[in-house]
Protein: VOC family protein
Amino acid sequence: MQILRVHHIAIIATDYERSKAFYLDVLGCKLLVEHHRAERDSWKGDLALNGEYLIELFSFPSPPPRRSWPESTGLRHLAFAVPSVEQARAELLDKGVRCEDVRIDPYTQKRMMFFFDPDDQPLEIYEV
Structure:
């Protein structure tokens, strides 16, 4: 098998419109296409990030909450590279996004910080 790259990241939202607004208006993704899947009572939107990454945003009726704390098996978080963690954090806070304090990665000595989408999905900004 030859893996070329990561194709997409899928995220399930409890409120499709609220999460779509977060990923578009707060994080700056672009909506490529969206479909209502009536047979599943579900929305699927393809969101582009910088023309390189694809986030599939889904909604389903009454999805179970994501177990984050304590740490659980599976995908932990999605991290975004930024030039300045402090600047990104200030912009997120101005938009009402819940953010943790800035930390230093103990292995790389780079600044990083976690923040949360409308469903408390942990997201990270990492200074490069």
User: Anything to note?
Assistant: The helical segments are 16-26, 85-94. Residues 78 and 123 are 5 Å apart (CA to CA). Residues 77-128 form a domain with the 2,3-Dihydroxybiphenyl 1,2-Dioxygenase; domain 1 fold (CATH 3.10.180.10). Residues 16-26 form the longest helix (11 residues).
